[in-house]
């Protein structure tokens, strides 16, 4: 590896010298602090440059309180505040970095190594094929009541999107989708929806290696289930459940909360499990790590943040707690309920 880095450095030495002359008197930020950066620094490449700092995707805002390699640290999210500086890309894969920085509207980027027309073409071809053929080895099957399997079926009001590969979606009929339902899978996801379910507006966003299972006889109105940023998490919903409008279920927080000293992630994603015959009332939120036992009711606008273990309870509040025991519920209204 070291010999290869040295070879690349020697091949680009003349280009680097011309680049240093071009950047003389201009403010420069060095992006990338890996092995090639260290080789460049050991050869005094940055010695006569007006370097105001180093940036890398590994740096976090609190890292700006210290120096790295003798330079001020600049977090990626603060890079846009240095609009007058040139970003000198000191990695061996500058094209992917340039693409990332362009998304941040940073245009003043210069690679430390010369990019050949062939290398640029290869990068863009690879990117094109990755985007075009990223969805592969995905299975979507509808199983009729007689056991017949229909692959890639057209189901009224249902849209399925495979973002990645190795996903499996199985829906057992009959199923009724009154209004739009949307399922999105990234990689290695499994979605299993059992029979005799009714949905009016529902969205499922499944992340990497995640699983969603919905038991038979369950109904949902305007429900969102999110495992988008999860890694191997599950949402399990039992049989004969009733999910009212505005219900929000998720196994992760999408963004990271971490300890500033140890960099340990605090808000790790966790499974959500809902038992059989559970009524989730309108606008309640079921968050990561929640478990709701069978024959329970979750009250309107409640926020569930933990696992409960008692069946036949009313769970309500923010954060939710058990407010009533020894109950059960029925889909019929009071007028039609036999007493």
Write the layout of secondary structure elements.
Elements lengths: L1 H10 L1 H10 L4 E5 L3 H8 L7 E7 L10 E2 L2 E5 L10 E4 L4 H10 L5 E3 L5 H16 L6 E5 L5 E3 L6 E5 L5 E5 L2 E11 L4 E4 L3 E12 L2 E4 L4 E13 L2 E4 L4 E2 L4 E3 L21 E3 L4 E2 L4 E2 L4 E2 L4 E2 L4 E2 L8 E5 L2 E6 L14
Parallel strand pairs: 1-2, 1-5, 2-4, 5-6, 7-10, 9-11, 10-12, 11-13, 12-14, 13-15, 14-16, 15-17, 15-18, 16-19, 17-20, 18-21, 19-22, 20-23, 21-24, 23-25
Antiparallel strand pairs: 3-4, 7-8, 25-26
Quick take:
The chain is of the alpha/beta class and 339 residues long.
Description:
With 339 residues, the chain is α/β, with parallel strands linked by helices. The chain has two domains: 2-132, 3-Layer(aba) Sandwich (Rossmann fold); 139-336, Hexapeptide repeat proteins (UDP N-Acetylglucosamine Acyltransferase, domain 1, 3 Solenoid), CATH 2.160.10. It is built from five helices and 26 strands. It has helices at residues 2-11, 13-22, 35-42, 94-103, 117-132, and strands at 27-31, 50-56, 67-68, 71-75, 86-89, 109-111, 139-143, 149-151, 158-162, 168-172, 175-185, 190-193, 197-208, 211-214, 219-231, 234-237, 242-243, 248-250, 272-274, 279-280, 285-286, 291-292, 297-298, 303-304, 313-317, 320-325. Strands 9, 11, 13, 15, 17, 18, 20, 21, 23, 24, 25 and 26 form a twelve-stranded mixed beta sheet that branches. It has an eight-stranded mixed beta sheet with strand order 8-7-10-12-14-16-19-22, with no helix packed on it. The longest helix has 16 residues, at 117-132. The relative contact order is 0.06.
């Amino acid at each position: 590896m070291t010999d290869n880095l040295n070879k690349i450095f020697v091949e680009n030495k003349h280009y680097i010298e011309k680049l240093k002359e071009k950047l003389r008197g201009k403010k420069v930020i060095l992006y990338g602090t890996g092995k090639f950066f260290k080789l460049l620094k050991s050869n005094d490449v940055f010695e006569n440059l007006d370097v105001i700092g180093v940036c890398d995707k590994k740096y976090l805002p609190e890292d700006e309180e210290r120096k790295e390699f003798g330079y001020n640290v600049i977090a990626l999210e603060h890079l846009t505040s240095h609009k007058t500086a040139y970003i000198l890309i000191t990695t061996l894969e500058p094209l992917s970095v340039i693409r990332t920085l362009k998304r941040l509207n940073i245009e003043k980027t210069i690679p430390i190594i010369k990019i050949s027309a062939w290398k640029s073409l290869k990068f863009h071809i690879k990117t094109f094929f990755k985007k075009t053929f990223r969805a592969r080895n995905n299975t979507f099957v509808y199983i009729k009541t007689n056991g017949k399997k229909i692959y890639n079926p057209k189901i009224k009001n249902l849209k399925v999107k495979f973002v990645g590969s190795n996903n499996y979606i199985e829906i057992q009929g009959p199923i009724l989708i009154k209004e739009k339902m949307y399922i999105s899978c990234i990689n290695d996801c499994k979605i299993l929806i059992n029979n005799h379910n009714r949905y009016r507006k529902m969205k499922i966003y499944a992340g990497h290696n995640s699983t969603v299972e919905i038991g038979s006889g369950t109904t949902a109105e305007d429900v969102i289930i999110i495992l988008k940023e999860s890694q191997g998490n599950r949402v399990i919903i039992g049989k004969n459940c009733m999910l009212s409008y505005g219900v929000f279920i998720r196994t992760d927080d999408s963004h990271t909360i971490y300890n500033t000293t140890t960099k340990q992630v605090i808000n790790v994603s966790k499974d959500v499990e809902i038992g059989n015959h559970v009524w989730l009332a309108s606008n309640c939120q079921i968050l990561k790590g929640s478990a709701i036992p069978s024959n329970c009711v979750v009250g309107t606008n409640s926020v569930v943040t933990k696992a409960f273990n008692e069946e036949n309870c009313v769970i309500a509040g923010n954060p939710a707690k058990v407010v009533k025991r020894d109950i059960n519920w029925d889909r019929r209204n009071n007028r039609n309920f036999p007493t």
